[in-house]
Amino acid sequence: MSEFPKKGVIYTIRGSFPAIDKYGETKNILLEELNNPIANNGLEHGFNQKRFRELQKDEMKLSKSEEATL
Q1: Are 47 and 31 in contact (CB under 8 A)?
Q2: pLDDT tens by residue, 23-43
Q3: What is the Cα–Cα distance from 24 to 46, expressed in whole angstroms?
Q4: pLDDT in tens, 50-67
Q5: pTM recorded for the entire structure
Q6: SS3 letters for the chain?
Q7: Residue 51, SS3?
Q8: 31: buried, middle or exposed (CB in 10 Å: 19+, 13-18, 0-12)?
Q9: What 3-state class would DSSP assign to 60?
């Protein structure tokens, strides 16, 4: 069963590969926290990088301090 990212959760990128969407070439990313089955094309289901945003500096500090409390 496939897992999907949830809004508001911070994920770690573990890999990427080229892909094509309806707008042209893009990259799909694989997330450390989610592991999906391998598709018929031999690749794990990835997620379009355009659907994510980079962390801001203040969010990075927060995530590291939260990590320390785990």
Answers
A1: yes
A2: 899 999 999 999 998 989 888
A3: 16
A4: 999 888 887 776 555 555
A5: 0.72
A6: CCCCCCCCCCCCEEEEEEEEECCEEEEEEEECCCCCCECCCCCECCEEHHHCCCCCHHHHHHHHHHHHHC
A7: helix
A8: buried
A9: helix
